[in-house]
Write the structure tokens for this entry.
Amino acid sequence: MNKQKFTFQFTQFTIGLPVFLSSWLSWVTPLNYQIQILNEITKMIPPECQLSKWNLPILPNEKQEKPKPEKPPILISRLPVTCCEYDSSCLDNAIYEKDRQQLLTAIDYSLKYLQTGRAVKAYKRYNGTEISQERVIKSLLRFREIVLTTKSPLELQQMIDKEFVYYQSVGRDNQGTVLFTAYYEPVYVASRQRTKEFIYPAYRAPNDLGSWAKPHPTRLELEGADGLQGSKGKLKGLELFWFRDRLEPYMIQIQGSGRLKLTDGTETTIGYAGNTAYSYTSLGRSLVEDGKFALEGLNMPKILDYFRKYPQDLNVYIPRDRSFVFFHETHGRPAQGSISVPVTPERSIATDKSLMPPGALALIRAPFPYINNSKKVEYRLVSRYVLDQDTGGAIKGPGRVDYFLGTGKDAGERAGLTVSNGQLFYLLLKGK
């Protein structure tokens, strides 16, 4: 592991670290140095305010003795976690510092989705529960009013605690522990035509993708080991844009969207348009399994340096990811989530949509990296109100959240350093 420099601040932690992409390592639990960061942060918070109080409360004995339901609940209602006088990290300070409008925009996008037939269909699975489409809409409308009328994060929190019920995810361990990673929209140079320099394509979705026989062709079968054989099979004529580096269209497949600076001087964007029916396998996982690296300390510079030394190994490791993602040109529109509304930096999350209520208001709490004025990465234990507007191939179960951090280099750097444990709550107005 590279040498690290630690600078303590209240509920903040500054560290000089190399960047790695969490999407390549999203299958792992937080690494030791990130656990160390969390431990150091929580040491600076009085015991009554520490992270453990955010875990799912232990149920009373009389409730534990009741017969267990056939399917244990994923979201459990609980009392609010009130703020401690000495712990401002339980407040969403960012709303009043810089991005109230971003939060309001994200709320409006969710409200737009919740008026659609897709939302009606999605919420049918909640019939007979405390969660309903109507209640989610009312909760968002009221939350929006509170955000507009309150003047401080503490005032906002007090109003939320008074009017809303917290529904906490049981997490990965049935104690509320949720693993957070992050994603972003990369920016790359690309060409509309193949040239001697730009030879690696991203593909549009075939018109007949829905009728492809299963099992679908693997990545290896679609584009070959070298990524250049797509024109000889099902991908012929589907080339959308061309890239110089094979990793670039692959990274866009992982992130789900990309912003392109074209060789003709214009800019555009591409977004998700479909995929083959395989689970994602990360490059980091394959390299570790082959003994190329130890898990501890694996990072983006090491991975890139490895492939610079052994570029032929790209033809070994990329094909091991059998999944394949298709795109369409979105002509500069913002990156969209799975509910077909734009995702908003630091206000949108991706969860398992077979379990979680799409478009709903949520509260997340975990250590996240920020880039300070000295261009160092500073970890802060924060709470953020977010909207559940996306999903992802690696985001499965009640214990996984992917946090959207925006577009470009800084967002990518922060996303690469986000692998931490925290908590996830959904907020609904009291009553039904």
Remarks:
- The longest strand covers residues 377-390.
- DSSP finds twelve helices and 16 strands in the chain.
- Residues 59 and 156 are 29 Å apart (CA to CA).
- The first helix runs from residue 32 to 43.
